[in-house]
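Appendix B, Record 12. Input sequence as logged:
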Amino acid sequence: MTTCSRWHTLLSPSHLLALALLAAACSDNPLAPAKPADPLATAANVQALGTSFASPAFESFTFASTYVPTAASPLAALRPLLRAAQPTLVTRRALSPTESRLVATALRAALVPSSGAIAASIFPPAVVLGTTYTWNATTLQYEANDPAVLPGAPSNGVRFILYALDLGGQPIATQPIGYADLMDESSGNAQTLHILVVGTTTDPAVTYLDYTVSAIVGATSASGAVVGFISDGTQRLDFNVAIAQTAANATFDIRFDVNAADAHVRLRMTYTLPDQNTLRLAIDFRLQFGTEVLTVRGTETLDLVTLTTSGTVTVLVDGGIYATITETDGSLSIVGGGGQDLTADDYTALNAIFDAIGATFTRFDALLAPGASVGA
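Logged structural output:
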């Protein structure tokens, strides 16, 4: 058995998303012990999954998305829920009393039954369709331009010019690198926002991101989807995310696929609030590289009064137990599957697996950001 202190030495806080998120099958699981064929190669494969998100165009789009004109919506409540939970669910730092209230409040907001009404347009009435937004280096804001003066934006949406970012992460107004078009393609009782990110520094131009965020809102539930692809110009990653909300839970089913590399990721999470003092999260995470399949499963319970967590997480390789991690009132211990020893290479692989859960979580949040108004 590995003690809690050693676990924290080997897994830094930034790599610990899954530990507070997860709990799983009993420690006397009869499955045979197993390990990756090459733990370091597995770690490298996991890290390579982020390549598609590494383009300057996506980084600039992520910055610009915070300025997208949006309205409040049922789906928008999911983002503060994810972020409010992160202090404990990501970094293993105990929540303060204020933060614990934020977690509970955010989840309750996400689970409030919808009115069943859906707005006629994704964009607020004050937004003029066909408008292009450019960065003002003096006011440090994206500002609307007269469509007659700066044409080119889609007639059913708006355009944001994207710029190279300086070392501080701010746009350089004299260095445009592309644009992001956000288009309202709603139909019937479904609202759909189509997002297209194009880089213009090459000839021909490169499409880095093309996806839709859609939602259907009912009287007591809502469902959504985030579907499309992202590329760094070379490697393409396809994603398909399903979101479901009821008065009892909020569920995410996130799939990332790099078909050229035969790499596949699936993260399923369900948040519930059994009572006003308890937050529960069930998770099922699956990584596949070629024929090798790694799985992390479980449920975690967070007491919002005592700010303690409990549960057990099981990491599997091709159906065999790689490691079991048990948490009781914030104290952690690890046992290799079947009592097998875990080497430094194994901990590197485990770090990468947990980091992949965190990265999947964060990248989904970035993709959802500009579409938070969908379903308003």
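Helices lie at 4-10, 17-21, 39-48, 56-64, 78-89, 97-111, 344-368.
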